[in-house]
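Hi C.,

You asked whether I'd gotten around to modeling the 209-residue construct. I have! Everything is below, sequence then structure, no commentary in between.
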Amino acid sequence: MGARIPSFDFVSEIGVIVPPNRLGDREAVLTKHLQLSVCVLAAICRASASAAPANRDALFTKYASAPVYHGPVQLPRFKDRDRDFADYRTRIRDGMRQGANFAGHYALIGWGCGTGCQVYVVGDVITGQMFDFLLSGEEFINLRIQAWPDSRLILASWAAETNTSGAGSRGYNCLSQRLQWNGIKAVPLGKPTVVRTVKFDDIDKCDGN
């Protein structure tokens, strides 16, 4: 199975700013209530954090693929069938040799193409055939892909400029989208969702949404 998103605990000390023994009765009671509120909030956040990976696991499992292929890897035919990918043959061969990392018998391979730019392609490690990936290039700023070796589901997040006319201040939408691999291409499972809008200085907050 693929790597899971780590769980985390919410921790806060807002309720212990001043020790109760240095305050009057009223202040001590208030601090006690604050501490209790923090404990309740922490418990809720821990429960939510624990539930998030479980929900994510269930989502990937819903789109389970064939078992992960561990046999010999067939490299692309860059002289004929896969000639459109020949300019990146070294990166692709290196990625393919790592074996299947996505949807049973596919290798999802990516590399940088400049600041905040990522290129992705998909290769079938059984046949060697190469495929374009729908989300790729400078249009998808800080593109982040989540995929499992035994699932056809793809979770993608990226930033997109809100004002492309060049006039006025530049804002960016943090977007997320689910896609499903059908054997030859990634098919969107709905339109991209705007998670938040940020300024250029905060564009890193779009990473992973």
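If it helps when you're writing up: The chain has two domains: 21-62, 83-206.

Thanks,
B.
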